[in-house]
Design a protein that fits this description.
about 45% strand; about 15% helix; single chain
Length: about 220
């Protein structure tokens, strides 16, 4: 299962907490919040006070067939946002789209033609933004690696107010309809005026259910 709760959760959690806070002076309350979020066996749901005290950028991640977990931003490299869970499973996003995963059963290894992804311009410059996109994705398992062709079209549904864990946000709802081989999919993105994606429901690989990502806290915004 992606983002599974393993028998080694507490060892992994302890190592990750140490790695994240090791170079930063934190309070015992902060450490306790991080440990709570990374150890809770059921759906993680931070309170308003816990979110306010939480010092890191974080998202809720939930596959349609699993519990909600917390993932924390580890670092940013050339526009790639690298996220990590308590079990050290990792995910990379670009413009809010998941482009790589590691530590899951069906790993997304690569996405081609990322520079043409309409997510980077569909809200900020819609008049000059192509609303169709073709790419290839590489998928890996323990035994094999294979490629799938993906085609999709984008539609701007309009503005709305979205309730997130940290408050209300004015966003534009964008839908992506496409095919991976012969399989149809439907993604949804909620995007702020500056192009920042605050929530999404994405099909990462055709073998998995949809993944929902919800912004819990974004430090510096």
């Amino acid at each position: 299962m992606p983002f599974k709760i393993s028998s080694l959760r507490y060892l992994a959690m302890a190592g990750l907490v140490t790695a994240i806070v090791g170079c930063t002076a934190v309070t015992e309350e902060t450490r306790a919040t991080l440990e709570y979020a990374f150890s809770k066996p059921d759906d993680v749901q931070l309170s308003a006070d816990e979110i306010n005290d939480f010092p890191y950028t974080a998202l809720y991640a939930k596959w349609d067939d699993s519990a909600q977990i917390l993932i924390v931003l580890g670092y940013i490299d050339s526009g790639e946002y690298n996220w990590v869970s308590a079990d050290r499973e990792t995910m990379v996003t670009v413009n809010g789209r998941v482009v790589r995963t590691a530590g899951v059963d069906y790993e997304l290894m690569a996405v081609s033609n990322l520079s043409q992804d309409p997510l980077q311009c569909v809200v900020t410059a819609p008049a000059n933004c192509a609303l169709s996109w073709q790419r290839q994705i590489d998928i890996g398992t323990e035994d094999s690696r294979y490629t799938r062709s993906v085609r999709s079209e984008f539609r701007i549904l309009g503005d709305e107010v979205l309730q997130l864990p940290s408050g209300e946000y004015q966003v534009t709802r964008v839908e992506e309809h496409g095919t991976i081989g012969s399989q149809k999919f439907h993604n949804t993105f909620w995007i702020e005026a500056d192009g920042h994606v605050v929530k999404s429901r994405q099909l990462i690989v055709p073998e998995r259910k949809l993944l929902e990502l919800t912004q819990v806290k974004w430090v510096g915004r």
